[in-house]
Amino acid sequence: MEAGIDAEDNDGNTLLMLAVMNQHTQIVRYFISKGARVDLTNKDGMCALHYCAGFDSDDGFELCKLLLDNGANANQTDGIDHGITPLHIACGQGALKNVKFFVEQCGGDIEFANSYGYSAIFYAVMEEQFDVVQYLVSKGTRIDQINHKGRSPLIAACLFGHLQIVKFLVENGGADIEIVASDGLTAVRAAIIKNRFEILEYLLEKGARTDYLLIKLAFPI
């Protein structure tokens, strides 16, 4: 192996990364035994763990555990999505077993947000990963944290039309239904603009205010 165990292709992917991407656990184990580095990143700033974090399967979990047991970092940020971590990916893909492992045994930071202000719960909410949302709330994640536009996970759930998550955030997480984003968006306003009737009906039943809607009803999302 003239180029060495950490040889890269034109995109900066190492042999280990390619094996991880294709879920070839035996080959990954072999490369690690030969000294392959698990912390290297490709030209997009992605490490091997980024590529298996979202695999919601026993093989995916085994790959994550193998990498983390050999020095990978659950909080390592990438270079293409302004600071997305393997934990963010696992949350967005609904890989709950991986999420739990990252958080409970590997120091995964559920509050870490990328440069747009998206933390783990935002990824779970936007991709409608209800089980992950439940788990993150049970671990004490901040329900009313905001992204770069001042929007909360509840507002995000309203925009994406995820009624089950909306109800859970309000009834079990104590989410503030009146929070106003820096661009003026509220949960009610989001439901109206995106035509989320059931969500709108639910919010109004919960006593959400409507008086500030008169100020500015239509604006780009």
The residue ranges in which pLDDT falls below 50 over 5 or more consecutive positions are 217-221
Report the β-strand fraction as a percent range: under 5%
End-to-end separation: 52 Å
Question: How many strand segments?
Answer: 0
The portion of residues assigned to helices is 40-55%
Q: What is the string of SSEs from the N terminus onward?
A: HHHHHHHHHHHH
Oligomerization state: single chain
Computed Rg: 20 Å
- The name of the CATH superfamily of the largest domain reads Ankyrin repeat-containing domain
Could you please say which CATH topology of the largest domain applies here? Serine Threonine Protein Phosphatase 5, Tetratricopeptide repeat
**Tally of DSSP helical segments:** 12
Average pLDDT taken over every residue = 93
Shape: elongated
Number of domains: 2
CATH class categorisation of the largest domain: Mainly Alpha
Query: Based on the structure given, which CATH architecture of the largest domain is correct?
Result: Alpha Horseshoe
Strand count, sense and barrel status of the largest sheet are:
none
Tell me about this structure.
Helices cover 45% and strands 0% of the residues. The protein has 221 residues and is an all-alpha fold. The chain has 2 domains: 1-142, Ankyrin repeat-containing domain (Serine Threonine Protein Phosphatase 5, Tetratricopeptide repeat), CATH 1.25.40; 148-221, Ankyrin repeat-containing domain (Serine Threonine Protein Phosphatase 5, Tetratricopeptide repeat), CATH 1.25.40.20. The radius of gyration is 20 Å and the shape is elongated. Residues 217-221 have low confidence and may be disordered.
